[in-house]
Amino acid sequence: MGYRVAVVGATGNVGREMLNILHERQFPVTEVVALASKRSVGREVSFGDKNLKVKALEDFNFTGTDFALFSAGGSVSAKYAPIAASQGAIVIDNSSHFRMDPDVPLVVPEVNPEAAAGYTRKNIIANPNCSTAQLVVALKPLHDVATIKRVVVSTYQSTSGAGNAAMDELFTQTKGIYVNDAPTPDKFTKQIAFNVIPHIDVFMDDRYTKEEWKMMVETKKIVDSAIKLTATCVRVPTFVGHAESVNIEFENELSADRAREILREAPGIMVVDNPEENGYITPVECVGDYATFISRIRDDATIENGINLWCVSDNLRKGAALNTVQIAELVGREYLKKAA
Ligand code: A2P
């Protein structure tokens, strides 16, 4: 017994990781369907040692599909996720389109698995923003012990978060700069090669970016609406792996040493924190891993109960495809019980 799964956006960065992760984790499938735009019809994508022929989303009927995993951008989700859901598929959506809908649960299985039960309201579950996913995995076990009051986070986000074409832009621009022939920015607002850009998603009326707003509201929805969070989100010239510098203020006393012990035991987390031996994780070292890596845990002496830490994870995995597959596993296990 197994599930019929459709991957929407199967030719994209996240869609390809979804196929890899479904296979790696031996998600019980009877059939996997790869969907993308009409442009990609006939292209092949790998699923384990098989190749799947890509079909057009717009011609596809989801009847008989158990899970539809969407990662093709907000406008595609807005149009097609409700169609897939009405045809009976449980949609797990990577875009930001449904995340703040009160009838759509926003789920990180290590943090708020119980929220997944709400999928029945619209047959849709949302996956958080990549930077939020790794952050809340780190915050939740600390919040349970010492109650978080406020978080100040700065992100160092890789270009893969902006899609395939954005990674290509970093590559060609970097090469071009060496020969004085760099193409002008297209996917990014400014030069990304040898630079950093404090602008991800659009600017909002309060002068924050939408990416920064998402981290704030999504953390509240997933962990606790009482947590105050302020963010600065920055695109950096890396290909895969998002890093975050996180300052956390607690209601109750919590030392860095105790936080390290708690995080060592927490699900989804790997603590690597041994500065004497360069024991900290950088984005290139997290690529292909499932874990959220926590390093450089230290007391913040400027506030009564506070710590700083460094948090790194593969944005295409925990930040997107892995979390999506984990949600499907959770729903399958707890609610559908189809797989033996
Ligand atoms: P396609 O390759 O056919 O354009 P990324 O974010 O890595 O660039 O990937 C985006 C994914 O979303 C791709 O798989 C892309 O397919 C898919 N996509 C984009 N627009 C549509 C659409 N209108 N219908 C279906 N899939 C789409």
From TrEMBL:
Source organism per UniProt: Sneathiella chungangensis
Documented EC number(s): 1.2.1.11
Residues annotated as domain Semialdehyde dehydrogenase NAD-binding: 4-119
Assembly information from the UniProt record: Homodimer.
Binding sites annotated in the UniProt record for NADP(+): T11, G12, N13, V14, R39, S40, S160, G161, N315
InterPro entries noted in UniProt: Asp_semialdehyde_DH, Asp_semialdehyde_DH_beta, NAD(P)-bd_dom_sf, Semialdehyde_DH_NAD-bd, Semialdhyde_DH_dimer_dom
Keyword ATP-binding: no
Family assignment from sequence similarity: Belongs to the aspartate-semialdehyde dehydrogenase family.
Ligand binding (phosphate): R99
An MF annotation (GO) of this entry: aspartate-semialdehyde dehydrogenase activity
Protein name: Aspartate-semialdehyde dehydrogenase
Active site: C130 (acyl-thioester intermediate), H242 (proton acceptor)
Domain of life: Bacteria
GO BP: 'de novo' L-methionine biosynthetic process; diaminopimelate biosynthetic process; isoleucine biosynthetic process; lysine biosynthetic process via diaminopimelate; threonine biosynthetic process
Any Pfam family matching the protein: Semialdhyde_dh
Keyword list, A-Z: Amino-acid biosynthesis, Diaminopimelate biosynthesis, Lysine biosynthesis, Methionine biosynthesis, NADP, Oxidoreductase, Threonine biosynthesis
Reactions it catalyzes: L-aspartate 4-semialdehyde + phosphate + NADP(+) = 4-phospho-L-aspartate + NADPH + H(+)
Pathway: Amino-acid biosynthesis; L-lysine biosynthesis via DAP pathway; (S)-tetrahydrodipicolinate from L-aspartate: step 2/4; Amino-acid biosynthesis; L-methionine biosynthesis via de novo pathway; L-homoserine from L-aspartate: step 2/3; Amino-acid biosynthesis; L-threonine biosynthesis; L-threonine from L-aspartate: step 2/5
Biological role: Catalyzes the NADPH-dependent formation of L-aspartate-semialdehyde (L-ASA) by the reductive dephosphorylation of L-aspartyl-4-phosphate.
Annotated binding of substrate, by residue: Q157, R235
